[in-house]
Amino acid sequence: MANHLVIGLGGTGGKVLRSLRRHIFQESQNGDIPGVNLGYMYIDADPSLMDPDDPTWQTLGKSFQLAADSQVLISGANLHPYLEQVDKNPGVDRWLGDKRNWADVINANLDTIAHGQMRRLGRLILAANLSRFTDAMDKQVNKLVGKSGYDNITFHVCAGLAGTIGSGTLIDVISQIRTKYSAIDAVQYRIILYLLLPEEQPAAGRNTANYRANAYAALMELNSLSVGTFLPHDISKNSNKLDITYPFNSCYLFSDQKELGQSASVDQEIPNILADFLYQRIVKLKDTGWSNIDRMENFENNQAAPEMAAGGGIPERSKRFLAVGLKKLTIPEEEIREFLAYCLARQSVLQMKYNNRTERIGFH
C-alpha cells in the first residue's frame, strides 16, 4: 500500500488540503481510499482554518476538518522568550543577526504574522516551534507505516511562495524532512513540491513590497538547494549546515494564468486545481495510465544533473522544476453549462417548428 503525507504550509497550503479533503469525502464518504494510505499535516501561524466548526470544512452534511494531530499551529507568541535564548541555538543565531533588531519587527507584526509577508520572520517562527512540527510529522509517518506495514513515504508539500509561512518555512521544512527521512536514491522517502507563484494581478492589499520578492527569493533558494550550492543552517539545536543529497525529487510550479489571458482565482479556483491534480496524482494514479509519472518525477530515464554555468563548470540551474497546464486540470463548468443550454434551446426550437423526434438524435 502506498503511503502519502500531504503537508500544507500557510494559507495556500491549508486551502489545498481543504479542497483535497472535500474531494475525497465526496468520493468516499469517510475519507478512506482503498489501496491508498493518506495522512495530512497543516502548518500555519493563523488558526482561522483550524476551527473544528468551520463551515467551509463541511460537505454533504459532514465535517471533514483535519484531526488535531494533523494541525500544527506555529505561534508567534513565544518569539520574545525564544529570542532571549537564541544564542543557545546556533542553527538560528548564525543567520538571524542582531536579535535586538528583531524586537520591533515582532512587536509590529505579532497580530498579523500570517499576513505580514516577511520570509525571515516565517523561518524564525518555525525555528521557535520546530518540535511541534517534527513531533507531528513523526506521529503521522508512524501512523502511516503502522497501518500499511510499508516504510516508504511520499511527502507532498503544498505552499504559496509569496507569504510569510509558505515562503519562509519551505526550505527548512524540506531540510528537516530529508534530514530525518533520507534515502540514498530518494525513492523510499520522496519529496514532491507543489508551489504557487504570485498572481499577475494581485488583489488590493495583497501586493506589498515583499510579495513578488518573497517568491523570487524562494525560487532562488530552491534552485540552489537542488544543485547543491546552498547549504541551509540546521534550525534545530545544531551548528551544522545541511549538505543534503536529493533535497526534493521534483517541484511543480503553478500560476493563476490560463489560456487567452484568463486568470484563476487564487482563493477559490487555484486550491481546487492543485487539489484535483493531487487527487489524480495520489488516488487515481493506478487507473489513469500515469504509471510512469513516478519515474519521470525521479528523472530515472533523463539526465537529472543540473545545467552548468557557462565556462565555469559550476552547477547553476536545476532541472527538477515541472509545470502543469491549468486548463487541462479544471472542469470547464461554464462551457458545459453553455453547451447544455444551447442544446436544450436548439431542441426546443426544433420541437416547436417541426415536432419531428427520433430516439438517436432527438428533435430535428
Describe the structure.
By secondary structure, this protein is an alpha/beta fold. The protein folds into two domains: 2-331, 3-Layer(aba) Sandwich (Rossmann fold), CATH 3.40.50; 332-364. Helices cover 39% and strands 16% of the residues. It has eleven helices and 13 strands. It has helices at 10-28, 79-84, 90-96, 102-109, 119-128, 130-148, 164-180, 211-227, 269-282, 293-297, 333-353, and strands spanning 2-9, 36-44, 58-59, 62-63, 71-73, 153-160, 189-196, 250-254, 307-308, 315-317, 321-323, 357-358, 362-363. The protein has a seven-stranded parallel β-sheet with strand order 5-2-1-6-7-8-11, sandwiched between helices. Strands 3-4 form a two-stranded antiparallel ribbon. It has a two-stranded antiparallel ribbon with strand order 9-10. β6, α7 (164-180) and β7 form a beta-alpha-beta unit. α1 (10-28) packs across α7 and α5 (119-128) crosses α7 (164-180). The termini are far apart. The relative contact order is 0.12.
